[in-house]
Amino acid sequence: MSMRHDVMSSNERIYALLAGKPIDRVPLFPFIPGFCARNVGYPIATMYSDAEKSFDAQLKTMEQYGFDWGPLYGYASYGTWEFGGTVKMPAGEYEQAPAHVTFPVQSEADVSRLQLPDVKKAGCLPTAMAFSKLQERSGMPVSIICGGNFTIAGNICSVETLCRWMLKKPDLVHELLRLATDHIVDIVRYWVETFGAERVIPQMWEPSAANYIVSPKQFERFVLPYFQESSARILDMGVKHILYHICGEQNANLPYWAQIPMGDPGLASLGEEIDADTAVRYFGDTCIIIGNIDGKVILEGTPESLYRLCTDTISKLKHAPRGYMMCSGCEIPPNSPPYNVYLMRKAINDAGWYD
Amino acid sequence: MASDERIGEILKAIRDAVVGYDDEACERLCRSALEEGVDPNRAVMEGLTGGMGIVGELYNKQEYFVPELLLCADALNAGLSVLKPHLKVENASEKGKLLLGVVEGDIHDIGKNLVKIMFEAAGWDVYDLGNNVAIAKFAEEQQKVNADIVALSALMTTSMLAMPKIIESLKAQSPGVKVLVGGAPLSQEIARRYGADAYAPDAVAAVKEAANLLGNVM
Amino acid sequence: MRLKQDRMNSAERAKALFDYRKPDRVPISMIAPGFCCRNAGLPITVAYNDPQNNFYAMYWTAEQYGWDPIPQIVRHTVVETLDFGGDVRLPEGEYEGALVIKSFPVKSDSDVEALTMPDPGKTGMIGAALEYGRLQQAHGLPVTFVSRSPFTIASNICGLQQFCKWLIKKPELCERLMKVAIEHTFNVLQYWTDAFGAENIFVFMSSPSESNQVISPKQFEKFALPYHLIYHERLKTLGIKRFFFHVCGDQNANLPRLADASPWEHPSILSFGHEVNLEAAAQYFPKDIICGNIEPAVIQTGTAQQVYELAGANLESGKKIPGGFILSAGCELPIAAPACNVFAITKAVDDLGWY
Question: pTM for this structure?
Answer without folding.
Answer: 0.91
